[in-house]
TrEMBL record:
One of its GO terms (cellular component) is membrane. It comes from Prosthecochloris marina. This is Bacteriochlorophyll c synthase. Pfam families: UbiA. The keyword Transmembrane applies. Gene3D superfamilies: UbiA prenyltransferase.
Length: 332
């Protein structure tokens, strides 16, 4: 009896953890790392490492975990059809237990971020706490009625870009130093990059979106035009990034960014020509090299997006971290 009870507790804990969707936590980490690097103010001390740890906890398990838990709660009927093995539709968690799940992580996120904000004090503390509060609010209204921003691409993609790409950068920068003007530029670039990626990520649910009346861009304008819109946004991000790097005095980085843009366009052309099988030479990288990280898909257009994402994300992150490092060194 004791063994059965213990096993039941473990299974319940696993279900609660699954509801927070750990694989999604990493999505905000590059912006957090970039914001910290660009501050140029973090010291090699136990105190600063503790702050860094709390930063990742607040935005990962608590912040993103909260949004994923809320999403599962309000998508119960949809998940009964599309993802019946998820914790709530499978019966491993009740709806009441799900409410307890996202309520607890919400409370922890608010308490820890408020404590850090008060501890930092001043404008930095206000910015740090406000950024998280903004993300939590959007994380809720993204999935919850009556607003349910995810139902319309004109609201859903910017909401994701704001929470994952913009306020995360500012929050991380404010934790260790004053907000750098260059960081606002990097945060803006991450905002638009996130918008483009979320637009293409919707390929995986295009059939379900069409049947349920959800207005994703791919439902409204088709796969090829969706790729075109997303690619234009991404190419503009790299172009503006190169201009900013030049104005910041990072001339070598500017040439690297332009080279990255050229590589991206080389991958984009075959995907635009054939949204289903374009850039198939990258498929091994998806299946073998990054399959467990970025996932796999049975939807051809979404699989093409994953092939592109392997190249694009590496190029963007390398350039972003390079810029953040140079900015941090500039303010040492």
């Amino acid at each position: 009896m004791t063994v059965t009870k213990r096993s039941g507790i473990i299974d319940k804990a696993k279900a609660h953890l699954e509801l927070l969707d750990p694989v999604t936590w990493i999505s905000a980490f590059p912006c957090l790392a970039g914001g910290v690097m660009a501050s140029g103010a973090m010291q090699s001390s136990t105190y600063d490492y503790l702050l860094l740890f709390l930063l990742f906890v607040i935005w990962g398990p608590l912040g993103i975990g909260f949004s994923q838990s809320v999403n599962d709660y309000f998508d119960l009927e949809l998940d009964k059809v599309n993802e019946p093995t998820r914790p709530i539709p499978s019966g491993r968690l009740t709806e009441k237990e799900a409410i307890w799940n996202w309520s607890i992580v919400l409370l922890l996120a608010i308490l820890i971020s408020t404590w850090i904000g008060v501890h930092i004090g001043g404008q930095r503390g206000f910015i740090f706490t406000s950024c998280l509060f903004i993300a939590l609010i959007f994380g809720y209204i993204y999935s919850a009625p009556p607003l349910k921003l995810k139902k319309n691409i004109f609201f859903s993609a910017p909401a994701v870009g704001l929470c994952y790409g913009f306020v995360t950068y500012l929050s991380a920068n404010a934790l260790f130093g004053e907000i750098r003007p260059e960081v606002i530029g990097l945060a803006g670039l991450n905002f638009f990059m996130a918008v483009a990626l979320i637009i293409m990520n919707d390929f995986k649910s295009q059939d379900g979106d069409a049947k349920s009346g959800m207005k994703s861009l791919t439902v409204m304008i088709g796969s090829r035009n969706t790729f075109l819109v997303a690619f234009l946004i991404i190419d503009l991000v790299f172009a503006v990034f190169a201009i900013l790097a030049w104005t910041w005095g990072f001339h070598i980085l500017m040439y690297l960014i332009l080279a990255s843009l050229a590589v991206n366009i080389f991958i984009q052309i075959p995907i635009y020509r054939d949204p289903k099988t374009g850039a198939s030479f990258m498929q091994n990288a998806v299946d073998d090299g990054f399959g467990n990280t970025i996932g796999k898909s049975e939807v051809h257009e979404h699989n093409a997006f994953l092939r592109f994402q392997v190249v694009n994300n590496i190029l963007f992150l390398v350039n972003q971290f390079s810029a953040a490092t140079l900015i941090g060194l500039k303010y040492l």
